[in-house]
Amino acid sequence: MALQACRVCGQKFFKKPLLRYANMPKAAQKFPAAGDLADEIGVDLDVCQCTGCGLVQLSNMPVPYYREVIRAAAVSVVMRDFKIAQFSQFLKKHYLYGRKIIEIGCGCGEFLSLLSPLDVDAYGLEYSENAVAQCMGNGLKVEKGYLATDHSILANGPFDAFLFLMFLEHMPEPNVALRAIYNNITENAVGLIEVPNFEMVLRKKLFSEFIGDHLLYFTRETLQTTLQLNGFEVIEVDEVRDAYVLSVVVKKRSMVDISSFNECQAKIKSELNAYISSFKGKGVAIWGAGHQALAIIAMTGIQDRIRYVVDSAFFKQGKCTPATHLPVFSPDALRADPVDAVIVMAASYSDEVVGILRTQFPKGMHISVLRESRLESVEG
């Protein structure tokens, strides 16, 4: 059954495929023997694009061996030298010497074996039993498995870094694999991810690049979107190997540190209470019933020390502030029921309100303005 929606963001494809190729090879790694040709037939490939994130992908089902990594790279001296230099730079730049690193989809250990002399604690994950046996026979630490669920637990984790090389494009559920990686790495972990570069395919019009093995065709934008949706920040992007490969370095997204908000809140609360306490007569009013003013009143707990709130918005007048239940009046209340001081909490309109108070209302009221992080006194 052909897929109808994006494997990454879930939005529908454009109604018309970008391309349709008939009688294509079923798989790049499955070669029929001469005696099997009578039963061997090709498949039709529909190249589709997501209307949401824009990712280009096949609507076809994956090849039967999509969980396994099959490489011919081991025979290439050029590839070996490139990877050793690339891995060395990655480890040095991110201070990974002596740390735990895992390659997701390590095949027969072609790349994993290059990490062993580089002073890291290297592990691998591979689905193929034969490949795992070969890896272990060569002294590599490899676990048999595949990231089939978000909650897949990897032995020897969590890891400080990961490699995910030319494998993501094969996966029918890329989000699952990426979230599983996210859940098996440390808070400051980094990763090196590589996929075929669809931007190069577009530039050179390489119509022959489509094959049933590769379900996903990433540009920089769609790869970054995919990674961001699954908890990673892209910190480096490069085109390598004659631009055939998109190579990105990612880090695990961490929580934004906004603990300083608490300090700011405490400071504002202290300043407001001190200001309000300095007026013992007719009390203090607030000008502004926008969301920031409502939040400030609630967060600082000053509602019992405020006479009322005024606001120019007619639909707010005659009502009460949510949660804190202060009456909201027209600004005319400042004439009918004067106060000693007005705290302006009108965000970007605050200076305009100060001008109105100075020119259109009786003298004698003290005016202050609540700025982003301070209470600013204005001459009364």
What key attributes describe this structure?
alpha/beta; seven-stranded mixed sheet; six-stranded mixed sheet; 17 strands; 26% helix
Choose one word for the global shape.
elongated
Assembly form of the protein: single chain
How far the N terminus sits from the C terminus, by CA atoms, comes to: 75 Å
Q: Number of DSSP helices?
A: 10
Number of DSSP-assigned strands: 17
Low-confidence stretches: none
Biggest pleated sheet: 7 strands, mixed
The share of residues in helices is 25-40%
Helices and strands, in N-to-C order? EEEHEHEHEEHEHEHEEHEHEEHEHEE
Q: Compute the CA-based radius of gyration.
A: 31 Å
Secondary structure class reads alpha/beta
Strand line-up across the major sheet: 6-5-4-7-8-11-10
Mean of all residue-level pLDDT scores: 94
How much strand content do the residues show? 15-25%
Any overview of this molecule?
The protein is 26% helix and 23% strand. The longest helix has 18 residues, at 260-277. The strands form three sheets. Strands 6-5-4-7-8-11-10 form a seven-stranded mixed sheet, sandwiched between helices. It has a six-stranded mixed sheet with strand order 14-13-12-15-16-17, sandwiched between helices. It has a four-stranded antiparallel sheet with strand order 1-2-3-9, with no helix packed on it. The protein has ten helices and 17 strands. The model has no long low-confidence stretch (mean pLDDT 94). It has 380 residues and is α/β, with parallel strands linked by helices. It is elongated, with a radius of gyration of 31 Å.
